[in-house]
Amino acid sequence: MKLGSKQMVDEFTRYGMPQWFRVITGLLEIAGAALLVAGIWNNSLVAIGGWLLAVIMVGAVITHLRIKDPVSKIGMPIILIILTLVVLFIK
């Protein structure tokens, strides 16, 4: 069974991170998204999912800064942090 695209495998290799970390990161992102959706019916799940996704994206920004990626690669995680925080504060 194949988990992940070649691009993501290559990116995590470039980050100097093991492939198991890529899988865990993906599973946590899916869990965070599921918690946000479940938060439609339960506000506390929004908080858990939102903070989980925000922490993952902060980690992404730190990783991109650590390997000296261009600002264009850092933009998307920053936008996702902002959107996640907006959802947290609205909910």
- Percent range for β-strand residues: under 5%
Q: How do the helices and strands follow one another from N- to C-terminus?
A: HHHH
The percent of residues in helical segments reads over 70%
**Average pLDDT figure:** 92
Largest sheet: none
How many distinct helices?
Answer: 4
| N-end to C-end Cα span | 38 Å
Strand segment count:
0
Total domain units: 1
Shape: globular
Structural class: mainly alpha
Explain this structure to me?
α2 runs antiparallel to α3 and α3 (43-66) runs antiparallel to α4 (71-90). This protein has four helices and no strands. It has helices spanning 6-15, 19-38, 43-66, 71-90. The longest helix is centred in the middle third of the chain and has 24 residues, at 43-66. It has one domain (6-90). 11% of the residues are buried. It is 81% helix and 0% strand. It is mainly alpha-helical. The mean pLDDT is 92.
Supply the key terms.
mainly alpha; single chain; 81% helix; 91 residues
Q: Layout of helices and strands, plus pairs?
A:
Elements: H1 6-15, H2 19-38, H3 43-66, H4 71-90
Helix pairs in contact: 2-3, 3-4
Would you kindly provide a brief summary of this structure?
With 91 residues, this protein is an all-alpha fold. It has helices at 6-15, 19-38, 43-66, 71-90.
